[in-house]
Write a structure and sequence with these properties.
Layout lengths: L2 H15 L3 E8 L4 E4 L3 H25 L6 E6 L2 E7 L4 E7 L5 H19 L4
Antiparallel strand pairs: 1-2, 1-5, 3-4, 4-5
Helix pairs in contact: 1-3
């Protein structure tokens, strides 16, 4: 199975485990889309923005000496957007509805990010 298909399968499982998840996209830290569970035009834009937010979040953590990046959560009036480190080279972006259980979103988002990291890791 190709890594993109494995990443998409992890995204599908995330939707199953977390009912309020509306979609997700995995991209490289450079903003290149790896896999997308969103409409294509939104996925490409989300990937580019995720890379920019990741860089900014990492810089803030370095500046404040608060460790390595794990996640960023944005809360809006119509839902949530969560960004998770999926290893050193991939970021997972997850969109959830306004009634989402944030604790469950964080738990399942981290679990999915770890699975994506395992798939994206170079095979030796």
């Amino acid at each position: 199975m190709e890594p993109t298909h494995e990443v998409l399968e992890e995204m599908r499982l995330l939707r199953e485990r977390t009912p309020d998840v509306r979609g997700s996209v995995a991209c490289t830290v450079d903003g290149l889309q790896v896999a997308c569970d969103l409409p294509e035009e939104i996925g490409e834009q989300a990937a580019a923005l995720a890379a920019a937010l990741l860089a900014m979040s990492r810089r803030m953590l370095i500046m404040t000496q608060h460790g390595a990046f794990e996640e960023t959560l944005i809360s809006g009036t119509a839902g949530f957007v969560a960004f998770y480190a999926a290893g050193p080279t991939v970021v997972l972006t997850v969109l959830a509805g306004p009634g989402a259980n944030v604790g469950l979103l964080r738990l399942e988002g981290r679990k999915t990010a770890a699975a994506v990291a395992a798939v994206a890791a170079p095979k030796q």
